[in-house]
Amino acid sequence: ATFARVLTYPTLLSIIGYGALAWAPALFDRSHGMPPSTSGVILGILVAVAGATGTLASGFLSDHWVARKVLAARFRVALVGVGLFALPAVLWPLVPDPTVAFGLLFLTVLGLGLAQSAAPVSIQAVFPNRMRGQAISVYLLLAGLLGIGLGPTSVALVTDYVFHDDKALRYALALTAGPSVLFGLWLIASGLRPYAKTYSELHPDG
């Protein structure tokens, strides 16, 4: 229960992240009339600031909770991240105002940074030393291969074969993000107890 969750939840988040960022310039062009030459600059700054902030906040919160002996501290950070971007990830392509869309996308990237940065440390905390390299390799393979492969592709397939309309990109982004967010949220929330048990067995002294 522990290993299946810590190794697979990042894949779902990668699908959301790669899908959103790959199609964001097209979305702002089709829905808001903003050319990629303009939205690309804003998106670059947004990703840099939100991603870096989320990554740094993830490490700080993780260490803070470990020091306070919070149950499943490392893994719990991922739950905070997903909880932060669950709604924004679905709403950002749907809102009619581009400024609001950028704001919601900022929260999405911030939450993704929190949750994704928690994955490597969560994995290392519950795998024996001799297995950590293999576990990280599996995590990177799943998150990278499936995230890059399925994220942008799933949005394109839904746009072409479900809505049959290029202008329905906003609905395709929301429709592909929603199930991934819910499944990822369930994986992490239901995994806190088994994660804590695995951690306590591997680290009996705390």
Topology:
Layout lengths: L1 H31 L3 H32 L5 H19 L6 H29 L5 H32 L5 H34 L4
Q: If you had to describe this structure to a student in words, what would you say it looks like?
A:
It is built from six helices and no strands. It is mostly helical. Helices cover 86% and strands 0% of the residues. The two termini are 21 Å apart. The model has no long low-confidence stretch (mean pLDDT 94). The relative contact order is 0.21.
Oligomer: single chain
Largest sheet: none
Strand content: under 5%
Radius of gyration (CA) equals: 18 Å
Mean pLDDT: 94
What would you call the structural class?
Answer: mainly alpha
Element string (H = helix, E = strand)? HHHHHH
Could you give the distance between the termini? Answer: 21 Å
| Outline type | elongated
**Poorly predicted parts:** none
- Extended strand count: 0
Keyword list:
mainly alpha; 206 residues; 0% strand
Brief synopsis:
The protein has 206 residues and is mostly helical.
